């Protein structure tokens, strides 16, 4: 890295390092964020995305607020909460509540989710990329309701490969008053197939006057994070799926940006211990039965790409109690070859 990138400013919020943890439904809950914090390297954490209309219903019926807001009041700042819906007044109401009651640092709007339940059924997420006037009004109303807390937006390149309209959408986002724009380098049609188009992300920069551009997509190594800053002119990066089983990835990227030696991957034994800490936090929140089921997908992420991962996934996908989970981890979670040889002697 020729020079360390400067901190990223989202309104009055300083994001240093300019590495953001992506909001991911079903994954980036309080437990995951705490595990990431143990390793460091994140300038701005984010919750799972919150359904604004569902939040309002819970609020009006005096029910407990969504599990996706677990820990938000107590944890360290800065912290972003991402929300989604297609009704400006509902979004504004929830944004104001997040600012007034939860004191969040940033309210982020999801205009990028490609999942059919959000797009086709709820006409939200990336569906709204076809409706820039609605996007403008949602952002404008949220900016007004949340001030002075900054509002940001996350988009994809477009809905389909034949309708890439991110340049025009970027202008809409800025004109509506958003404080930053994050772009995932695929269209909604792509979901997560193929490769993120970072050249296309880079082209958006010329269409923004004052707000920072954050790039997202396929950042699965410290080298790729460095390359994003050096080659594509982004002001910040957002790391998503690659961090789910490797929460230390942010710290590795941060070291690389500072020109320092990149910390090696933890040993498999340390990774196993990390996964067990993660499990304990999930169970403490949700109880043994629900927590064990929720942890199955996280456990699969921790094993991904390792020797024996498929065998481990087959067994961990069936666990329903703590004793079963610990037993499967003990017997099947991938181990260091040196540890296996030592045990056999």
Q: What is the topological layout?
A:
Layout: E1 8-10, E2 13-15, E3 19-21, H1 30-39, E4 45-46, E5 50-51, H2 52-60, E6 79-84, H3 88-102, E7 106-111, H4 116-119, H5 132-146, E8 151-156, E9 158-160, E10 163-164, H6 166-175, E11 181-184, H7 198-204, E12 213-216, H8 222-232, E13 236-239, H9 249-257, H10 268-286, H11 288-303, H12 309-316, H13 322-332, H14 337-344
Helix pairs in contact: 2-3, 3-5, 5-6, 8-9, 10-11, 11-12, 12-13
What does this structure look like?
The protein is α/β, with parallel strands linked by helices and 345 residues long. The longest helix has 19 residues, at 268-286. The protein is built from 14 helices and 13 strands. It folds into 2 domains: 8-257, TIM Barrel (Alpha-Beta Barrel), CATH 3.20.20; 268-344, Putative flavin oxidoreducatase, domain 2 (Non-ribosomal Peptide Synthetase Peptidyl Carrier Protein, Chain A), CATH 1.10.1200.80. It is 44% helix and 14% strand. Strands 3, 4, 5, 6, 7, 8, 11, 12 and 13 form a 9-stranded parallel β-sheet that branches. α5 runs parallel beside α6.
In short:
This protein has 345 residues and is α/β, with parallel strands linked by helices.
Give the key terms.
345 residues, alpha/beta, TIM Barrel, two-stranded antiparallel ribbon, globular, disordered C terminus, oxidoreductase
């Amino acid at each position: 890295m020729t020079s360390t990138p400067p901190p990223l400013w989202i309104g009055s919020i300083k994001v240093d390092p300019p590495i953001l943890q992506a909001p991911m439904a079903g994954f980036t809950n309080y437990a995951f964020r705490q595990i990431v914090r143990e390793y460091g390297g994140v300038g701005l954490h984010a919750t799972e995305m919150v359904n604004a209309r569902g939040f309002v219903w819970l609020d009006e019926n005096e029910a407990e607020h969504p599990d996706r807001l677990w820990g938000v009041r107590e944890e360290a700042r800065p912290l972003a909460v991402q929300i989604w819906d297609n009704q400006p007044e509902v979004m504004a109401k929830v944004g104001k509540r997040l600012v007034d009651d939860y004191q969040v640092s940033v309210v982020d709007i999801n205009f990028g989710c490609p999942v059919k339940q959000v797009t086709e059924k709820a006409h939200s997420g990336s569906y709204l990329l076809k409706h820039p006037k609605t996007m403008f009004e949602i952002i404008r109303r949220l900016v007004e309701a949340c001030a002075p807390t900054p509002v940001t937006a996350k988009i994809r390149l477009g809905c389909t490969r034949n309708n890439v309209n991110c340049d025009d959408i970027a202008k809409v986002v800025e004109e509506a008053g958003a404080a930053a724009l994050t772009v995932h380098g695929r269209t909604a049609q792509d979901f997560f197939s193929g490769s993120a188009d970072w050249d296309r992300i880079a082209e958006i920069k010329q269409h923004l006057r004052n707000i920072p551009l954050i790039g997202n997509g396929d950042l699965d190594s410290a080298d790729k994070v460095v390359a994003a800053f050096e080659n594509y002119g982004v002001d910040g990066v957002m790391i998503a799926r690659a961090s789910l089983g490797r929460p230390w990835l942010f710290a590795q990227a941060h070291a690389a940006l500072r020109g320092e030696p990149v910390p090696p991957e933890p040993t498999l034994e340390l990774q196993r211990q990390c996964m067990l800490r993660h499990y304990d936090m999930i169970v403490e929140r949700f109880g043994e039965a629900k927590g064990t089921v929720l942890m199955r997908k996280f456990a699969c992420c921790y094993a991904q790409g390792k020797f024996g991962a498929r065998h481990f996934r087959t067994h961990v996908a069936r666990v329903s109690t703590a004793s079963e989970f610990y037993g499967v981890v003990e017997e099947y979670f991938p181990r260091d070859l040196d540890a296996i040889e030592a045990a056999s002697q």
